[in-house]
Amino acid sequence: MKKYLFLFIVFWAYSCNKDKNDVKRLLDDKGVVISAPYIWKTSLHNGIPIGNSYIVYPIIYKNSIIIPTTSNGSRRNLSALDIKNGKKLWCWDDSFENGTRYLYVSDHVIHKNHLIIQPGSSYCINLDDGSSYWKYIRDRSLRPEVALMGDKYFNFGPIYSDEGTEMAAYIGDVESGVITPKIRVEFSDDIDYPDGAWGPNFKGGVLFLNNMPDNERMLVVSHHEVLSDWTFNTYFSLYNADSEEWVWKKELIFANHYETFFSKPCIYNGKIYANVGSSIVCHELITGKQLWKRDFNNNFMFSGFIIEDGRLIANNEDCFTCCLNPETGEILWKVNTAGTCGRMSFLNGIVYFAGGSIPRLFAVEASTGNIVWKMNTVLLGEQNGTQFKYNAVYAIPAKEAQPAKVIALSDMYAYCFEAYR
Question: Is-above-0.85 flag for pTM?
């Protein structure tokens, strides 16, 4: 009996690791890694595979990551995976929306063990067990963006009045989810505002909030004003949440422009950075004055930009990844990668992202622009037609005896690789 038990254990161990052992580390003719053994992989699907949802920014909590999964015909699930081994810890399937629709989590905030997301309706999920603290179908359509200030959070949505419709920042209670209008911006008196999807005489309004470093009660407010010809004036303002007063307001970024903010601005080294349309801008934090603006051939709608190790790295829709000096806007390097990429993650000098137009898992050296990974799913054993998704890529630092890890999603699986270095 012991002999058979031993043989079973050996066979089971071989079966569990067979996929990993079959995957070889392969390089292309330029020395770029196109295939590598993975530490673990976990199926995204319970049952028949169907198209699943997207998470734009990595959601990491303690020793787990949150990823989109499917189950019983529903695409609108979120699951927690153990970073160490890929084991599924819990699955959340408590959305109001019809199960055949996608769950698109384009932003989130975490307060203690509360995960707040706004993918249509409003949800607060317990990150320890996957239960719902609260959920609401609001009486108005709120934007998917959320922001955090202490034990409060912000949503962004319309206020309707006889004078027109404006977007405001609604402050919410993390424990209850109850929201009330809090921050509104000033609009010009001499504009004939157009009617639009948000309501009659749509003025524009608050788009994003950023906490000022070392003083989370000071908020950089990104907002715009819609002109009668449907162009935009875009602005930064600085708001004191304690005194409820503007420190400075309506510092112009662009005037009469057909594009506005595509992602949340970034505060770095006393400056505010944003991608507005096909440009990246830099403003002084204490005054709001514009310091530089760099124009590009296309926009940064999907991948946006990050600032790490004194470099601003951006993925443009012209299929180039570029690196700028954040102090001057000077382009330091530029390399051909892919368009419509997912958001970037950074770890130990390497930028990771999933390509869109070229569905590969990319790793790029931040200091040089050298591409070191360009992996596809076919060489991992998947069939043609599956590919890496431009879902968030999770970069996990080394911890204790565990190596640094990179976790990326294909149409079928979550893959965990040892990080490049």
Answer: yes
